[in-house]
Amino acid sequence: MRIAIIPARGGSKRIPRKNIRPFCGVPMIAWSIAAARASKCFEHVIVSTDDDEIAQVAREHDAEVPFLRPKHLADDHTGTIAVIAHAIQELRQRGMDVRETCCIYATAPFIQAADIQRGFSCLCDTQADFAFSVTSYAFPIQRAMRMNSNGRVEMFYPEHFNTRSQDLEEAWHDAGQFYWGRVDAWLNGQSVFGEKSVPVILPRHRVQDIDTQEDWVRAEWMFRAMRADGQP
Known about the structure:
GO terms for molecular function: nucleotidyltransferase activity. The chain is of the alpha/beta class. Helix content is 30%, strand content 20%. The chain has 6 helices and 10 strands; from the N terminus they run βββαβααβαββββαβα. It has helices at residues 28-39, 52-60, 80-93, 113-126, 183-187, 213-228, and strands at residues 3-7, 22-23, 26-27, 44-48, 101-104, 130-136, 145-147, 153-155, 172-181, 197-201. Strands 4-1-5-9-6-10 form a 6-stranded mixed sheet, sandwiched between helices. Helix 1 crosses helix 4. The radius of gyration is 19 Å and the shape is globular.
């Protein structure tokens, strides 16, 4: 069976209670649950959390929480792969024949059911181990700058100072929405960012990382603008 797993720990530091804080009037995690349900890709939509309140909100919005995540997998240093592997093992112990598994982030209000479906098709059609959402950088990364110890500017790649933007290779980054993967890849701790993965390309206007209050405000502006424009 195909399973969606939504990691949602309770200890968010930069935006407290981020996973269940109201986003445009709805608990943040509810947007991810709704997209997973609307995709019709999954027999079960599971939330992996260490937090009783998050578990309650998840159940109220039609997700399942058959177990609570142990505290040692809910700290600031535990990676997503370990959390998904733990969830798969817990579900297998409960008799579920878990196969293709999609990790959906709880803080992805721009996620769309059609993109989840497209990700599953990519996983199947390419025989890849992972298929995950990506988007392009808005500016050439080869012309990025940093501030040195003296507060002055220097380029990461000074050899590209005179290179035209259109002559530079396009770069992509993780869109932070979903990660389809085969069970063995999750359980073996295989890296998502590797040669056995394929991208599911999203437009930049539907991607926003939400780690700070400034990110949150920007994301709500973007979300409301898209809804006003009739976009899903």
